[in-house]
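[step 3/7] inverse_fold.run input=structure_tokens len=131
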């Protein structure tokens, strides 16, 4: 079964915008903690943002003020709005669901990553930002 599907990636120039979508299986969307991650070639995967079913969000310092996570419950979808993109934002972007939520102490990309083998991950969508 496919639980998470990302879309919306593409190629843009620096300063541009993209909105990524993560379609979430209904049984996950009813009470969730979803994390957005990215991995650039040759680099370690890093957490970008989280959003939970209450709409609480957290962001990595390097995207704060530029990226916004949101949700649409009617569509079982979470979004990552990315503005003022920089070349350093070029990466494959993934969404992941913390299957232990709400038993975890917080909705955190560190917690999702630490339990990565237990959690559901999408296959990713590529974002390329050119100068």
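[step 3/7] decode complete -> sequence:
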């Amino acid at each position: 079964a496919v639980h998470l599907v990302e879309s919306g990636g593409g190629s843009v120039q620096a300063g541009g915008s993209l909105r990524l979508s993560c379609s979430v299986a209904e049984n996950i969307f009813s009470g969730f903690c979803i994390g957005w991650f990215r991995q650039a070639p040759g680099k370690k995967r890093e957490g970008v943002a989280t959003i939970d079913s209450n709409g609480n969000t957290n962001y990595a310092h390097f995207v704060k003020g530029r990226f916004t996570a949101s949700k649409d419950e009617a569509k079982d979808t979470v979004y990552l709005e990315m503005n003022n993109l920089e070349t350093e934002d070029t990466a494959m972007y993934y969404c992941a669901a913390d299957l232990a939520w709400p038993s975890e102490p917080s909705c955190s990309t560190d917690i999702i990553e630490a339990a990565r083998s237990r959690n559901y991950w999408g296959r990713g969508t590529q974002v390329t930002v050119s100068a």
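[step 4/7] annotate
Helices lie at 26-29, 109-114.
Residues 109-114 form the longest helix (6 residues).
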